[in-house]
Amino acid sequence: MAFLGLALDAESAVPTFLQLRAQLIDLVRSGALTPGTRIPTVRALAGELGIAPNTVAKAYRQLEEDGILETRGRNGSFISPQGGAAERKAQEAALAYAARVRQLGIPPEQALGYVEAALQGHSEPPWSAPGEAAP
Known about the structure:
Layout: H1 16-30, E1 38-39, H2 42-49, H3 53-65, E2 69-71, E3 77-79, H4 85-104, H5 108-119
Antiparallel strand pairs: 1-3, 2-3
Helix pairs in contact: 1-3, 2-3
Keywords: DNA-binding, Transcription, Transcription regulation
InterPro entries: Tscrpt_reg_HTH_GntR (IPR000524), WH-like_DNA-bd_sf (IPR036388), WH_DNA-bd_sf (IPR036390)
Pfam families: GntR (PF00392)
């Protein structure tokens, strides 16, 4: 099964690397690939799609030049935060928050409640810990 349904048309007049690039961009735009998502290695994706690794590498290089991907050395390639500087900072903060919440074992629904309360401008937390009465 191809990564997130990627399907390349060998009969197309569009070069394979451009098909791959366009499909990955579509997955980012649709939200199927979110900032911070690790994508398969060049070799892994090439093997899965049955194409040459150089084809995947070319698509990845262009996506990196366009700011869609970022490569973190041996850690692999990831979807980059998108949009303007403020949006990228917000996405980076969200990624850090999500990582910390997972580390603390807080359920996503509870973590989202914290964010919603903070975005509504509450300076004091309007929530309570499980088993405590709300203030």
